[in-house]
Specification:
By secondary structure, the chain is α/β, with parallel strands linked by helices. It is 49% helix and 13% strand. It is built from 20 helices and 15 strands. The structure holds one RNA strand.
Length: 543
RNA sequence: GCGCCCGUAGCUCAGUUGGAUAGAGCGCUUGCCUCCGGAGCAAGAGGCCACAGGUUCGAAUCCUGUCGGGCGUACCA
């Protein structure tokens, strides 16, 4: 319908030699305003210096519309053109959905193109926290959406195991190790206080009971890193996230990429030395102040490898690169992008998604967390408490740019108040109806069904709702906003429940209508199942 | 101070690139199960879309300013 109208309108506009750039088609909120609506007459009014109503009249007079698709159109003040689809066209779409099946909702926008989504990227200094959880699910869901848009997607985790923080981690483990041996030790200043390091120290002690003071810090560091990465990967696996690439920052040093960046920026005259450090003249690139790239200690700050890493991303030739950051990294990406620009590299294909913070609410109160004191709730604890499906849904049901209030009490409720169960129930309910239909000897044969019987108000509403699924996925892809999908699925479930309450699906007195309704439910189930799959949430057959 | 995000119903939040009478869930009031899963549905109440200007056929949406809240503004990542 959309494609058809779009094509016809463009053809007509060209015929009249009117501009086509402002052509838009949208779904009106009210059913009386039709199935698709265009505001083209109003947007042309200024250019043509004519009244919108007149423009609409003239435009539509010469339109040849297929009466099998378009039932009628209205022209309404101040100049909307509203199109109504025929019910045959509408119901025929059900067969299209059934035929598409598992691939209903997919599109070819990114076909033949590659995309990379970088997310999580937490350094292996501790377990993932509820804060990391948000971008973990955000990134994975976005990667799913890009996959459904045809992209060949690489999920990437970038980490740093060199640097000061990792050395501190090694020192902290060493302290814990000797503490377990009964020696008087102190955690280093700013060291890692979390209990997980005690567990790791115990494991190390059991494996290697005879380490002494002369053992190099690197032994401890490596042991801690491996142990923590194992914990992180287990957490990721528990919520269904699997990265394709774990990119180690260290390789950037080994391959000389760090030095190359310094060299390139130096050639551009954008580096200078001050107080023993190497500074990047970002102030010349429209950024407030200059940034240090190499500390006076000789160690680079995180910005330098970030730039080198992104230079590599560009070199790797992805058509689309998406970086997911928390709000606390907001300052980093303008530096990186401007560095790419001055190095003459393409950067327009790099999209940055910044998400705001997560607040856990329990019994109406904020759960206080402080990373410094190792007093944080881990992602694992959250999964233990509410389950992976709920975790995934709650993390993405709000816009990434808004703060997220994660209501633990609501998340734990296994009733319709919990949107996850509401959705899953809708899916299970359809399958239940199917089981019951089979028991009663009703064949759910959609080829035989007379779909023209599907013309009641809430039935039509349900069909239209199902048809929006591909549009919603495309909207998510365009905006890189995933929260539209859960809210769409929720309204699809509502439309289904409404339909179910109003009409009886299994009616042995009326087998033709029953078959038609069963065919519709099959289409709804496909949209629900596919939508839940993109969200990474299970679609249970019964609950 | 400066930069980014947010401010919509009592609470938590949606609101396609500006569109037609601003929506949902929770909470509150009230209905609907001899009948396919009541883990459901319906009705009611509840709004100066933070505030003030501007842009235009039209603004919750865009621009400017003000006021609130969050995050940054490190030779931490």
């Amino acid at each position: 319908m959309f494609e058809y109208l779009n094509r016809q309108l463009i053809a007509r506009l060209e015929e009249l030699e009117w501009p086509t750039e402002t052509l838009q088609l949208s779904r009106p909120k009210k059913v009386e305003n039709g199935d698709w609506s265009s505001n083209i007459a109003m947007t042309l009014a200024r250019d043509l210096k004519r009244a919108p109503m007149q423009i609409a009249e003239e435009l539509m007079e010469g339109m040849q519309l297929d009466s099998k698709i378009v039932e009628k159109y209205d022209i309404l003040r101040p100049g909307f053109i509203n199109f109504f689809q025929t019910s045959d066209y509408l119901t025929s779409q059900i067969r299209t959905i059934l035929k598409a099946g598992d691939s209903y909702g997919r599109n070819a926008f990114g076909s033949g193109k590659t995309a990379q989504v970088e997310f999580v990227s937490a350094n292996p200094t501790g377990p993932l926290t509820v804060g990391h959880g948000r971008q973990t699910v955000l990134g994975d869901t976005l990667a799913n959406i890009l996959t459904w848009s045809g992209y060949d997607v690489t999920r990437e985790y970038y980490f740093n195991n060199a640097g000061r923080q990792m050395r501190l981690l090694g020192e902290s483990l060493k302290a814990r190790y000797f503490e377990l041996k009964g020696e008087l030790t102190l955690l280093p200043d700013g060291g890692y206080e979390g209990d997980y390091l005690i567990d790791i120290a115990k494991a190390l002690l059991a494996e290697k009971p005879d380490l002494d003071e002369t053992t190099e810090i690197d032994r401890f560091k490596e042991y801690a890193e491996n142990s923590i990465f194992a914990i992180i990967k287990t957490s990721l696996e528990r919520i269904g996230v699997k990265h394709d690439v774990f990119y180690n920052e260290r390789s950037l040093y080994e391959d000389g990429k760090i030095d190359e960046v310094l060299e390139l920026l130096k050639e551009k005259g954008l580096l200078y030395e001050k107080d023993g450090a190497t500074w990047f003249k970002t102030s010349e690139l429209g950024i407030e102040q200059d940034r240090v790239l190499v500390k006076s200690s000789g160690e680079p700050t995180y910005r330098l490898p970030d730039i080198a890493y992104h230079r590599e991303k560009v070199a790797r030739g992805f058509d689309l690169v998406v970086d997911i950051f928390g709000a606390d990294h907001i300052d980093a990406y303008p530096d990186v992008l401007s560095a790419l620009r001055v190095m003459g590299l393409k950067h327009e294909h790099i999209q940055v998604v910044i998400h705001q913070f997560v607040t856990l609410m329990r019994s109406g109160e904020i759960v206080k967390m402080s990373t410094r004191k190792a007093n944080f709730v881990t992602l694992d604890e959250l999964i233990d408490e509410v389950g992976a499906d709920v975790v995934r849904y709650f993390y993405i049901m709000r816009s990434a740019s808004s703060h997220l209030n994660f209501d633990l009490d609501l998340a734990k409720r296994q009733t319709d108040e919990n949107p996850v169960f509401y959705l899953q129930y809708a899916h299970a309910r359809i399958l239940s109806i199917y089981r019951r239909a089979k028991e009663r000897g009703l064949e759910a044969d959609s080829d035989q069904a007379d779909l023209s019987l599907l013309n009641e108000e809430f039935t039509v509403a349900l069909i239209n709702q199902v048809l929006e699924f591909p549009e919603v996925l495309d909207h998510c892809r365009r905006t890189l906003e995933v929260h539209h999908l859960p809210s769409y699925l929720y309204s699809l479930a509502t439309a289904l429940h409404k339909f179910y309450t109003e009409y009886k699906v299994i009616d042995l007195e009326n087998p033709d209508l029953s078959k038609a309704r069963l065919a519709l439910l099959a289409a709804v189930q496909i949209a629900l199942r596919n939508g839940l799959r993109v969200l990474g949430i299970s679609a249970p057959e019964q609950m």
